[in-house]
Amino acid sequence: MKGRFLTYKSDKGGDHLMRKTGQVFTLLLLLTLLTACVEGDLKLKINKDGSGEHTVTAGVEKEALNRFGDRAENMMNSVSGELESKGYEVEFYEENGFTGFRAKKNFENVQEMEILPVSDGMTEAGVAPAIGNVPVEMTTEGGIFTTTYKVEAELNLSNSGVIGGMQTLVADQLDLTFTLDLPLKPKSHNADRVDDDVLQWDIRTAGKTNVMVEMVVPNVKNIIIAGVAGIVVLLLFIFLLKKRKKQHDYESPL
Q1: Domain identity same for 169 and 66
Q2: At 161, is the pLDDT very low, low, confident or very high (cuts 50, 70, 90)?
Q3: Cα–Cα distance between 21 and 13 in angstroms, integer?
Q4: Of 98, 103, 127, 198, which residue is the least packed, with the fewest Cβ within 10 Å?
Q5: Residues 209 and 254 reside in one and the same domain
Q6: pTM above 0.70, yes or no
Q7: Residue 29 vs residues 33, 72, 131, 168, 172: alpha-carbon distances, Å
Q8: Which structural domain, as residue segments, surrounds residue 252?
Q9: Alpha carbon distances (Å) from 236 to 32, 150, 222, 249
Q10: What is the rounded radius of gyration, in angstroms, for the C-alpha atoms of the chain?
Q11: Number of domain units in the chain
């Protein structure tokens, strides 16, 4: 199996992911000012070949959306429209008292994935994210048959400057999560929930959210080479045994 699927989280790619993640949560924080409750999830599914699928889910309480009318609805439509222009397939949903949208996009290479830009309306209103570069650290430990990847990141919305530092006042109105669907079971992690290969973190709007994933990826090439070499050695050993047996039979007296 190729090990490149995790390189997305290192250096520039990792900063890009977390920075764009912050932009989505900025939108949801802004919506909180207009509504009673907001739910949002960023889901990243990574396949073994390095391809992936990104899903953005954002919804608000239907009752609150109706109460605030066009303002909140126009913001949702603006963001979903931008996602459509970026190649996402957007569908609207109404379930469990919430209404919103889910936007999905497939990627041949997850390293080239662009998540969600700041909307023009938010930029014009001066509500561009102040998340900045989120620290992302990746360490790699190579072995003969496996490579261990460890990714650590910290998302801190409390110091972002979003909505004037009012995150603590609206934290109970937000249900924000980050979901990571991996191609194999991680060795260790600090996710709040786990379902086999799927990890999910609760995003803390009034504090720090630490994300840690450690995975062991087989070095298929080295395993195959070692396997072939082992077969060759075994065949050579059998050949030598047979050769010695023939010599022994030939030298033994009748």
Answers
A1: yes
A2: very low
A3: 12
A4: 198
A5: no
A6: no
A7: 7, 12, 13, 11, 12
A8: 223-254
A9: 72, 41, 21, 20
A10: 26
A11: 2
